[in-house]
Structures are given as structure tokens and as C-alpha cells.
Request: fold
Amino acid sequence: MVKYQRLTMLEREEISRQIASGNSLRAIARSIGRAPSSISREIIQSGVVEQKYYRAVFAQQYSNKMRHKLRKNRKLANNIPLRKIVLYYLAKNWSPEQIAKRLIILYPNDMDMRISHETIYSYIYVLPRGELKRQFISCLRRAHKHRRKINKN
Reply:
């Protein structure tokens, strides 16, 4: 499987020029060596449908903003007191759901000390291999080594 590579500013400028000259999505994709679906997604994400024009600069700014938003540090990595409490309850064999609900009771007015059970699961499954990960996975109700993907249908 080929790893996805983000569009560059030069590619976005080329898309902008070719849209202005009336070329089709497939023709644009061929000229810059990308899949037509990538071009279509880029155009839709940058709001061309409503605005009737594509601006490479705005599309690049949006892309940068989204990339940094996705790389935002996880809550447990930054909030050390919260992480200590979560790890304490995991060591006592509490489930992530129980921990999340307990935090709401313990800290009703402090939003920084709240976390969803999904975030706790993500934290555990992202840990590198080793004794710590094995220990926390064994604390879960179902001690799966890998997280199962849930089909949305």
C-alpha cells in the first residue's frame, strides 16, 4: 500500500491554474501525477463548491491548520496529575469506562481532569511494546493485544 503524501503548494497552484482554465478533474490529476479522488477531495475541502473558485494559498493554510490540529498532543501526555490518576485506577483493574465516570464524580467542576474512556483506550494501545503495555492491557476487561476496528454498518 502506498503511503499518502500531502499536496504541495506547487501542486495546489497548478490545480488553481487548471481549474481557472476549465480543465476536468481527471486532466488535472494526470498533469500533476495524482489520483482524481485526491484532486476532488482537495477541491471540496477548500470550499470551491460554494465559492466557485479555488485559491491555492487558502487551501495550503487550511491544510497546515488541519495537520497541526491532528498532531495536537494527547490529553494524558500533557496532564500529569490526570495521567497519574488514570494509571492508578488501571493498576486497580478498573475499566476505562469506570475511570472516566469516577473522574466526573471526583472533579465535577474541573474540565481538565476529565477524560473519555476512548482516550484512555487510545493511550493504552499507543504505548510501545513492553511490560507497561502488557500490564495495562491485562487490566482491561478483555485483554486484547490489538484494538478491534468496529464496522459502522
Notes: The two ends are 25 Å apart (CA to CA). The mean pLDDT is 79.
